[in-house]
Design a protein that fits this description.
By secondary structure, the chain is mostly helical. 54% of the residues lie in helices and 0% in strands. It is built from 10 helices and no strands. Helix 4 crosses helix 5.
Length: 238
């Protein structure tokens, strides 16, 4: 067995710092899919996500010697990826451009290099609606929801990734879910009343059928189970 495959994440990072040119590639290979998923869900655009992930990995590659070991290597990597994504969102908001219809320039994966795994969406229309709803959330809420509800990380781990208190993560998730419930409420199928067991009375005394209740309320939110996060990202939503 290759010694790198049996090494821990921390051992690989240290080996990279010591000059092993393959150690960081092995580390990236281990966590590539989850890091990509975080970038894609946060940015909502495959090209942007691929570029952000590449930026993040370059930053991690250069900053490895400064890793203090006060968190897991995966936490450190996720923090760098999230920060790279949020940086791109801020730049995009400062210099808006017209997006392509489905966030893919050619549809064949060209231009994303070797970073983007194959991840087809089974329901493309619904996926686009959800992606647009996530994109409408404030940055801090979006990052928290992607990590907790989409990727399934524990609140405590997300707090370490984002560099905020656990209560702040819970608050951001709750507010984000409330907003998504409004934005995605139309996706919830309407409920109808069960048919009456009694036959309608004959003649003019026949009653008017009751009105279908439809969707009586907003959809429920989805449940959930070191460098510092940027100062402005630590501020609580108002």
């Amino acid at each position: 067995m290759d010694g790198r495959a049996a090494a821990s994440d921390l051992e690989l990072l240290r080996a990279h710092v010591d000059g092993d040119r393959q150690a960081f590639a092995e580390l990236f290979h281990r966590h590539r899919d989850r890091l990509w998923a975080v970038a894609l869900r946060t940015l909502g655009d495959r090209e942007e996500a691929a570029d952000a992930l590449q930026d993040a990995l370059l930053n991690a590659h250069r900053a490895a010697a400064r890793f203090r070991g006060d968190s897991a290597v995966t936490t450190w990597l996720h923090r760098i990826v999230v920060n790279a994504c949020l940086d791109r969102i801020r730049r995009r908001q400062a210099h808006p451009t017209v997006p392509l219809p489905d966030g893919n320039r050619a549809g064949d994966g060209s231009g994303t290099g070797a970073i983007e795994p194959i991840a087809p969406a089974p329901d493309h229309d619904t996926a686009l609606v959800v992606r647009e709803a996530l994109a409408a959330l404030p940055l801090e809420q979006r990052a928290a929801l992607v990590l907790v509800d989409v990727q399934g990380y524990a609140v405590a781990e997300v707090a370490r990734i984002l560099g905020v208190a656990e209560g702040t993560v819970k608050s951001r998730c709750a507010r984000g879910r409330a907003r998504l419930a409004v934005l995605l409420g139309h996706l919830r199928p309407a409920r109808t009343s069960p048919p009456s067991a009694r036959p309608d009375p004959p003649g003019p005394t026949r009653e008017v059928p009751g009105v279908t209740p439809g969707n009586p309320g907003p959809a429920e939110g989805v449940g959930s189970g070191s460098g510092r996060y940027r100062r402005d990202a630590n501020q609580e939503d108002t």
